[in-house]
Design goal:
This protein is α+β, with helices and mostly antiparallel strands. The chain has one domain. Helices cover 31% and strands 35% of the residues. The chain has six helices and 13 strands. It has helices at 9-12, 31-48, 91-106, 108-135, 173-176, 272-299; strands spanning 52-60, 65-72, 77-84, 87-88, 136-145, 156-164, 181-188, 193-201, 205-207, 213-215, 220-229, 232-246, 250-266. Strands 1, 2, 3, 4, 5, 6, 7, 8, 9, 10, 11, 12 and 13 form a 13-stranded antiparallel sheet that branches. Strand 9 and strand 10 (213-215) form a beta hairpin.
């Protein structure tokens, strides 16, 4: 699974869901029953999933925009920045990015730490998924069409509203964030997947994950998911807007948008070192294509008819108007 972006795990995981097709149609089932079946099936599917991908992450924050090439490996997820603020990295920046990734390859302890962090993120993900049926109350809210990046184009999406369940008692600080959240959920009933979740905090809530702090009222997230090919569903967009406190005194301010695209499957047994090689090759190919396009464009001089002299059929020379 791709690495968490400080707090995003508790958000992104709310996307992955599945329910059994042998049940009555989604529009005829009680929303709570639908969500409960979704969670049960998704936990099972996540446990046996063998799909890994390389993909592109276009990230925008108030301070910077970046394009990052990503690849999932059996050890951890590797990412290589290739552009920043609309421009490709210069030679020095590219070398620094390569050195950062090679540091993981050359120092197993650093890679183990990264892998451990991703495993802990996955465990928190599982806790949140398990909490969904009990943490919220759901209400049917009609349907809307799917798109290429939300669900699947041509499919109808079942829309559910959700709000906090006042009787829910979070078993740990991880699930505490759910007690103040409400919003909408979109389900692609044809593919048995959740296509979008849009949630907003209606009150200040505390959170854990190894630290003490809170998230302010008004915090919002939007996460979208779609079929990226051959029945594989991945997150295609993530928007986060949160403020709060960490350790009760340090300010927390997260404002970011990530657009994920260009998904291509990679071998399930890909090692981290092989993933780094793949990223470097991918980045080199993109840089080469960019250089070729620049050279091609610079070699194309706009033709000025005035340079050809007068037209044979006109006594006046060509003029640019």
């Amino acid at each position: 699974m791709r690495p968490a972006l400080q707090l995003t795990t508790a958000v992104a995981i709310l996307l992955a869901a599945r329910f059994a097709t042998a049940q009555p149609s989604a529009t005829n089932r009680a929303p709570a029953d639908l969500v409960r079946k979704v969670v049960q099936h998704e936990l099972h599917e996540n446990a046996k999933s063998t799909a890994r991908f390389q993909f592109k992450d276009q990230r925008t924050t108030p301070h910077v925009s970046q394009v990052k090439l990503m690849v999932e490996t059996r050890e951890a997820t590797a990412g290589l920045i290739v552009a920043q603020n609309g421009a490709p990295l210069n030679a020095e920046q590219r070398q620094a990015e390569k050195a950062r990734l090679r540091n993981y390859v050359n120092h197993p302890d650093e890679l183990n730490r990264k892998r451990r962090q991703e495993r802990e993120d996955a465990e928190r993900t599982t806790k949140i998924i398990k909490a969904m049926p009990d943490a919220f109350l759901y209400q049917a809210d009609g349907t809307q069409p799917g798109t290429a990046t939300v669900g699947r184009q041509g499919h109808d999406l079942v829309r559910l509203k959700f709000r906090p369940n006042p009787d829910y008692d979070p078993p740990s600080r991880v699930e505490q964030v759910l007690t103040g959240m409400q919003g909408t959920l979109l389900i692609d009933a044809n593919e048995d997947r959740i296509a979008e979740i849009d949630g907003t905090l209606q009150k200040q809530v505390g959170f854990g994950w190894g630290i003490l702090g809170h998230l302010d009222r008004g915090g919002r997230f939007l996460v979208q998911q779609a079929d990226v090919g051959n029945g594989h569903w991945e997150v295609t967009r993530m928007e986060l807007l949160f403020t709060g406190k960490i350790l009760l005194f340090k300010s927390l301010n997260i404002r970011s948008t990530d657009i994920f695209s260009d998904f291509k499957p990679v071998p399930f047994d890909l090692t981290f070192a092989q993933g780094v090689d793949l990223l470097e090759k991918w980045a080199a190919e993109q840089n080469s294509q960019r250089q070729s396009k620049l050279a091609e464009n610079s070699g194309q001089k706009e033709h000025d008819p005035a340079e050809d002299g007068p037209d044979k059929n006109d006594s006046q020379p060509w003029c640019r108007h």
